Amino acid sequence: MATLLMAACADLTTEHIKPILDHSAISQYFIGVTVLAMVPEIPEIFNGIQFALQNNISLSLEVGNCIAVQVCMIQIPLLILFNTFYDVGFVLLFSDLHLWASIFSVIVVNYIFMDGKSDYFQGTALVVVYLILLALYFFAPSPPAC
């Protein structure tokens, strides 16, 4: 039941993005990083927030880290496999902006998890990094091919 509700929520979200992009100055990158990245992961985000409120910051950060691993190791290979049998136009071409944002994020997360401990300062540092990346994507121009 939860899977069907999340599929319906994701379908409604992606259906209403095109009018937003057509009638506003919001970058396609910004919509992809905020709305499209967060909607399918809402249950994990709520669990991470609950763990943080219970003073279990390490588990909260691990939940967030596992979301990224899930997307990289399961969802993207499945999309590529699906695209080989039914062409939906899924292409893995990354701009310099995506490449440097990914490298920067991996370096910061590795630095945070290097000592095996976490505290509110490190969690706040990750939130600040996310806000910086959001500002970067908000002001980035949309690619001409999209």
UniProtKB/TrEMBL annotation:
BP term (GO), one: intracellular calcium ion homeostasis
Q: Which GO terms describe its molecular function?
A: calcium:proton antiporter activity
> Which residue ranges run through the membrane?
63-82, 88-113, 120-140
- Residues annotated as domain Sodium/calcium exchanger membrane region: 1-137
* GO cellular component term, pick one: vacuolar membrane
User: Where found?
Assistant: Endomembrane system
**Keyword terms of this UniProt record:** Antiport, Calcium, Calcium transport, Ion transport, Membrane, Transmembrane, Transmembrane helix, Transport
Q: Does the record bear ATP-binding in its keywords?
A: no
What InterPro entries does the entry give?
A: CaH_exchang (IPR004713), NaCa_Exmemb (IPR004837), NCX_ion-bd_dom_sf (IPR044880)
**Membrane topology of the entry:** Multi-pass membrane protein
Keyword presence, Transport: yes
- Name the UniProt record assigns to this protein: Sodium/calcium exchanger membrane region domain-containing protein
Native species of this protein? Coregonus suidteri
